[in-house]
Amino acid sequence: MAEDKNKRPIVIKRIKKVAGGHHGGAWKIAYADFVTAMMAFFLLMWLLGSTAKGDLQGISEYFKTPLKVALMGGSGSGDSSSVIKGGGQDLTRTTGQVKSGESPPEKKINLKAANEEIMRNEAKKEIEQLKKLKESIESAISSNKKLQEFKSQILLDLTTEGLRIQIVDEKNRPMFQSGSANLEGYTRDILHEIGLMLNDMPNKVSLSGHTDATAYSAAAGRYSNWELSADRANASRRELITGGLADEKIVRVVGLSSAVLFDKDQPQNPINRRISIIVMNKKAEEAAQQDGGSVQIDAENGDAAEVLGGSAVVAPSPPSQPPH
Q: Which of 50, 192, 223, 284 is the most buried (most CB within 10 A)?
């Protein structure tokens, strides 16, 4: 019995293997690979979306660098002697980098073209301002009971010099008393309203008086249509100032007699008797102030309209009969 007690029991462990129990841990490795691949994909998409076009082109050219240049060297990995242009440390270059730290070539600026572009932009802006003034005057004429009656006698159009306002005669409603520079009462009202509106603009103003082709002579021929048209222009200047136009804004007052007819087919048409007020653009102002109104012509292309500030809007042909 004592020997039986000293013997140790023999324990046999049998491990029961179950094939594919919970698939082991292989699926975790596969899932981790998938997540890593997706992360790399989205990172690549983000880089492509946030990289400038020039950088992308540089990267593309970098990987096209010949193996010979990459292994054997040269003046740089983007050696300009390479068959394929580009590469080097500056990936935005496409012509090849000659040496490290090479600065890009300076861009040449065409000052003449830049100045012409500035002038064109200023001219466009000025034309838009004159168009707004034209619309404002037309609106004021339509809304003013005093001026509505004379709407057919107030003509507005855009020329190469600026906005032109013409106050013309009608057969039964002249602006001035016959053969004199004395304005009718309604003409004063028209000039007062126009003077007040023009004072809101920074532009200078010129006036010209016109007559028809009917010969007029008094004081033994020493007073003709030339003097009469000049006196009428000056009388209109005084009324514009009375209406509110600043005196210093007027740079030119001239009398042109019948030299510039509105209706050339009918020289004696009453519509030829008129006062022309021009709200001048910048170029026309400079021409008037510098040398009495001569127009500078572009020496290269002979284009006067460009020099004066843009294309002009041609006035409509005058009616064969005076407006009613």
A: 284
The pLDDT, as a whole number, for residue 320 is 43
Q: What is the pLDDT of residues 19-75, one digit of tens each?
A: 555 556 788 888 899 999 999 999 988 888 888 887 878 777 777 765 655 565 554
CA 61 to chain centre: 39
What pLDDT, on a 0 to 100 scale, did the predictor assign at position 308? 40
Strand blocks (E) in the chain:
154-158, 162-168, 205-210, 217-218, 223-224, 250-255, 274-280
Calpha distance 100→313 (Å, rounded) = 58
The number of residues making up the chain comes to: 324
Residues 6+ apart with CB under 8 A from 99: 75, 76
What is residue 80's predicted lDDT score, i.e. its pLDDT? Answer: 47
Helix, strand, coil percent content, the chain, rounded in steps of 5 = 45, 10, 45
| Ranges of residues in the chain whose predicted pLDDT is under 50 | 75-83, 85-87, 293-324
Contact between 264 and 218 (Cβ < 8 Å) = no
Sign of CA dihedral 41, 42, 47, 53: positive
Task: Give the pLDDT of residue 310.
Answer: 41
- Total H helices, total E strands in the chain: 10, 7
Entry pTM? 0.54
Q: In what order do the strands lie in the sheet with 154-158?
A: 154-158, 162-168, 274-280, 205-210, 250-255
Domains contained in the chain, CATH given: 26-100 (no CATH), 111-307 (3.30.1330.60)
Predicted local distance difference test score (pLDDT) of residue 304: 43
The DSSP-derived string for 198-267 is HTTS-S-EEEEEE--SS--EETTTTEEHHHHHHHHHHHHHHHHHHHT--GGGEEEEEE-TTSS-SSTT-T
In one letter, which amino acid is 112? K
**Long-range CB contacts (< 8 A, 24+ apart) of 39-48?**
none
Predicted pLDDT at 171: 74
